[in-house]
Amino acid sequence: MSFHSDKSEEDNGKDGKMYQPCSDSGLVSPKLTIVVGDTHFSEEKMLLIQSCDYFQALYRSGMKECHQEKIHLGCLRARGFLIALAVLRGEIPTLNEDDIVEAIECAAFLQVTQLTKYLIDLLDTDNCLLMYHTAATFGLMGLYHAAGLFIRDMFSDLEAEVRKALPSELISYIESLAPSVFVAVGAHVTCCEDKTVHAASRTVCYLDETGNSWKILADLPLEASTSMAGVTVLDNKLYIVGGVHGVHKQVVESCFCYSVETNSWTRISSPAQLRYNLSLVGVDGCLYAIGGEYERTVMSSVEIYNIKTGRWTFAAHLPRPAAGVACTKTMSRIFVCLWRPMETTEIYEYVSGKDEWQLITTLIRHQSYGHCMVGHRDNLYIMRNGPSDDFLRCLIDCYDLSSGQWSSLPGHFANSKGSLFTSVVRGDSVFTLNRSMTLEYIVDGKNWKPRRQMKGFPRSGSVWTFLLRLPEACMWQK
Q1: Annotation: CATH topology of 5-176
Q2: In the chain, fewer beta carbons within 10 Å around the N or the C end?
Q3: Are 474 and 263 in contact (CB under 8 A)?
Q4: Taking the model in full, what pTM does it have?
Q5: What is the pLDDT, as a whole number, of residue 22?
Q6: What pLDDT does 341 receive?
């Protein structure tokens, strides 16, 4: 991590040469010296104001500190502030237990949303109890809730440690949370013309892991199509965008949102560019409709739906037209796989701050392309078909976002009844699905180790899988 710090008392811009106009407080220096303990940090003032609620409030207050070139933060520790600066600059610092505590303290005191999100992204079975307890201590409620949800999902593995390490009130909060369940829906067209045909099979189902059986959660709206649609979950709501009906692949204009809290469907507005065979992913309160087709023409356009405003806006186009691309999110970042001839899979990231797609890495494998991608913390797992006669074998390669290195997972991840091109991460587990079985793997390092086998999803054709948290009062479950 690169930063500027020193032990001296020297100030930047004391002679006034570095001052620039500021509409609110007269002349201010573009740099600010922050003193934490006996360590001095020199940082861009605007970065701090834009990223930390503490500094926003300070410079809106009109207090004398607004005109000072040096501010003392006596209640923090230098390492925590250093970590905050690194995250604000887009770095990916590795944190030990002491670092985590100091980072949480800093995020809580300065109200650094970006640092809180970074800590949430780092949650795993090794640090979740520490993060949960520390976040409760410092009142960092976003991390407190996220860590509680993580522990709830991994409770069977962590219960003994939870009851030993946490006070009763923190355990009670975890137990009050709804665990996430594995949910699937098959590819179905609309039922507008004949409401009786296939209507009974048009259901969203969840896996009852205790009883090892699939149960119906909800029926699809008659006007909804999941055939070649975009399907995703955001903030515990299920969204369906686009899709087709009819032999001529007529695009479905209606889009829907399902709430488990009310067991009800509502319509949402359609993208400006109608599309099917798109990729849909949700991040930070927005849905991203990526590529797809319209009237059999493959598109590169991308649209973003803001949940709060209910509006779609266009974003930067994909580097080239693409339909049905493998897409995932991890570390609050969006990634897609694009294919090129000569057995090349390129992975691009959408950088929202710049509204552009950046090439991250390239994977070249003989007669093989990435068909599915899932993210687990700072690792991307790309599932691909095997070459030639081994097409039904599912092979997995891992790309480490921090180191920029590729590795291959040993073995293959399919059986004779179908290849694996769907997977969902829950905590430190991965759920995979085909008609014959549901397999749960534990992510150990970068490898997937089989944990248990459950009932497969008894539907033919494409299947969408995701996680939802079902409230205990789900009396409508069938």
Answers
A1: Potassium Channel Kv1.1; Chain A (3.30.710)
A2: C
A3: yes
A4: 0.87
A5: 40
A6: 86
